[in-house]
Design goal:
Layout: E1 5-9, H1 15-23, E2 28-33, H2 36-45, E3 50-53, E4 68-73, H3 83-93, E5 94-104, E6 115-117, E7 123-124, E8 130-131, E9 138-140, H4 142-151, E10 154-165, E11 172-182
Parallel strand pairs: 1-2, 1-4, 2-3, 4-5
Antiparallel strand pairs: 5-11, 6-9, 7-8, 10-11
Helix pairs in contact: 3-4
Length: about 190
């Protein structure tokens, strides 16, 4: 039983990866994040084998195709305007048969838009400083998320709605947890 290779997209300080390691201590964690300060904090915890600074909404991930058994992203997609690019890159580095899961705030109404900016709120800068400036966060359309996922070779396995809380302001935000597997031609039925 080989240790799972996990990519934590938007690893931040490593909270989600720590949970993975507590469930399976031999997991091989790789993390990417746009914030150098968050990566520095995560590195000090010594939970990831590799950490890279990557802008999920625009950059190509610096990994070969089919590199990971699991790709996960929690609290990231609300910062991504081009969710199609992010899903495509997550699927590209996921091995066939591997699992992907990510959270996103769904659109409340109107299926015509792929993403819609939410209200502007306080946030953190690239170096981790708390700011009271304007920050654009996005809600994403569930149907379009599914279209992007299918185009990237992902097979939908589930979506669950839950309520989360923004950490820097006390407000409730509805989220969807999207789960899928990457299509594996070896497991396809013969026709």
């Amino acid at each position: 039983n080989t240790p799972p290779r996990i990519l934590d997209v938007g690893i931040g300080t490593g909270v989600l990866s720590e949970k993975c390691l507590s469930a399976r201590a031999d997991s091989k964690i790789t993390g990417i994040d746009v914030s150098a300060k968050m990566l520095e904090i995560c590195a000090a915890k010594n939970i990831a084998e590799d950490l890279c600074r990557v802008d999920v909404s625009a950059d190509w991930f610096p990994f070969e195709e089919n590199s990971f058994d699991v790709v996960m992203a929690a609290g990231v997609m609300e910062n991504v305007g081009d969710v199609g690019h992010a899903i495509s890159e997550m699927a590209r580095v996921l091995r066939p048969g591997g699992h992907i899961l990510f959270t996103y705030p769904p659109t409340v109404r109107g299926a015509e838009r792929e993403s819609r900016p939410m209200s502007f709120r306080p946030g953190r800068t690239d170096d981790g400083k708390f700011v009271m400036g304007r920050l654009t966060l996005y809600r994403h359309n569930a149907d379009k998320i599914a279209v992007h996922a299918a185009a990237a070779g992902l097979q939908f396995t589930g979506r669950e709605r839950f309520v989360g809380y923004r950490t820097y302001v006390v407000i409730k935000v509805p989220y969807d947890l999207f789960t899928a597997r990457k299509f594996d031609p070896k497991q396809a039925p013969n026709v």
